[in-house]
Design brief:
The structure is a homodimer. Chain A is α/β, with parallel strands linked by helices. In chain A, 45% of the residues lie in helices and 14% in strands. Chain A has 10 helices and 8 strands. The first copy, chain A, is elongated, with a radius of gyration of 23 Å. In chain A, 48% of the residues are buried.
Chain lengths: 258, 258
């Protein structure tokens, strides 16, 4: 049922570090890895069965069928301009925010996007099975291959438009990057008073679980959700002179006006 | 070693629903429960061994040693004005944001604050063992009783000033209430595009774990943390006309300026 592919990984950052072994475990072969930083390429190679370190972006003689760019957003276009690929191959990038057309310099190949919605840290195990993978391709043949590839490692593989992918990326910024910044502010406020961020751990765990269980619409609590203007005033009084007062006010107003 | 107390619970909301049985499990006796809403008092009574429903706020003949107000913030002062207590008793409120002096109408008793830092939902089990409880009292004798009471249900019991408690409450609003609002916005953005909030589940779980593991200072990721102005422009372009653009801009600027 499954199709197995010969794959080359370009880049050696957090995503490559997780994705390459995962693809091997699913039955694909990683033929080559390439990185601008040779040491990183060697570290990645050590995680793999039989991959070679490729010395340049000239892959015109490569036998790989799929080339996956695991490079930073701003390097995609440059790599796409420099890379030389064999005929009848597919090149993918893995970014949430970059257009598929960033790959169009590589005219000889089919192009696509393979965007796993997760944050990756070297050394921290991630189960890909539950990571949604969002796909975009310029033709049906390529999409079919992308679906095979995605389904070999994840239960949740979805074809999306560029606009969908952008919406998902913006939503992820709110739900994760901005959430971490809220934790950062809480941490700063506690630190000034001599408390550790850890005291919030049970409350954060319960809040997040509740929000995921019953949905954020139903899980909103706190003084703004209750319309408790007296407590809101006290909090803003406490934050007077703080760089966080303006943010407290803005988010509070949004919750009040829901 | 432990001291056990005879306790009355005033109020029948989420906190009372969790706290009263927990205190019984720890060895204390709940003598009476009181609620403005008789049905809620009966529901709470059913969760307890031998508590009576008290018909009014006149507790002058009660044998309880500790009276715990589990009422909403804006009801504390009113209850404190109306309640009649026996001599040599202690009355506590459980609020993060209300001054201990809200209880000072009850001049005959010692007063204190017993603030468990957690969000409670009826029907959802909470382990109190890990819930930090923040204490305030007007004298040492009362603080000693509060510490005994707190330690009988939690490993983390801390004496704090009113200002500390306010800081903790404000920090909790950022880390939990505002975080839930970030989830709400993400949910709205996904919904417009036809996606379910659930696709963010693995990413949110990983983000929160990472932030708790290595601290929010070290866990910040995303385009603002990278200073990726091109992606930030794309996101703000995507949000043009949206009520969430201003918030995206403000939080992004804060992360950029860290």
């Amino acid at each position: 049922m499954a199709d197995y592919y010969d794959i080359t990984i370009i880049g050696s950052g957090n995503l490559a570090w997780h994705l390459a072994p995962e693809l091997e475990n699913a039955g694909h072969r990683i033929l080559e890895v390439y990185s601008r930083t040779p040491k990183n390429a060697r570290d990645l190679q050590k995680r793999l069965y039989n991959a070679e370190i490729h010395p340049s972006l000239d892959f015109s003689e490569s036998e790989a069928e799929i080339f996956i760019l695991c490079v930073s957003d701003d390097a995609i276009e440059e790599v796409a301009q420099k890379i030389a690929l064999p005929g009848r191959s597919i090149i993918l990038h893995t970014s949430g925010s970059q257009s598929i057309s960033k790959l169009s310099y590589t005219a000889i190949s089919d192009i696509g996007v393979f965007y796993p919605l997760q944050t990756f840290t070297k050394g921290k195990r991630i189960s890909f099975e539950d990571v949604p993978i969002f796909l975009e391709a310029e033709n049906n043949h390529t999409m079919k291959t992308l679906k095979n590839l995605g389904r070999s490692i994840s239960k949740k593989v979805v074809e999306v438009s560029s606009k969908d992918r952008m919406a998902i990326h913006v939503a992820a910024v709110f739900a994760c990057n901005f959430t971490n910044h809220m934790f950062h502010i809480a941490n700063r406020i506690l630190h000034v008073q001599g408390f550790d961020f850890d005291i919030l751990r049970p409350l954060i765990a319960e809040t997040v679980n509740k929000s995921l269980d019953i949905g954020p619409e139903n899980a909103q609590t706190g003084p703004a959700a209750r319309g408790d203007l007296e407590v809101l005033d006290k909090h803003m009084d406490f934050l007077k002179g703080s760089e966080y007062l303006e943010m407290y006010r803005m988010i509070t107003e949004k919750i009040l006006s829901r």
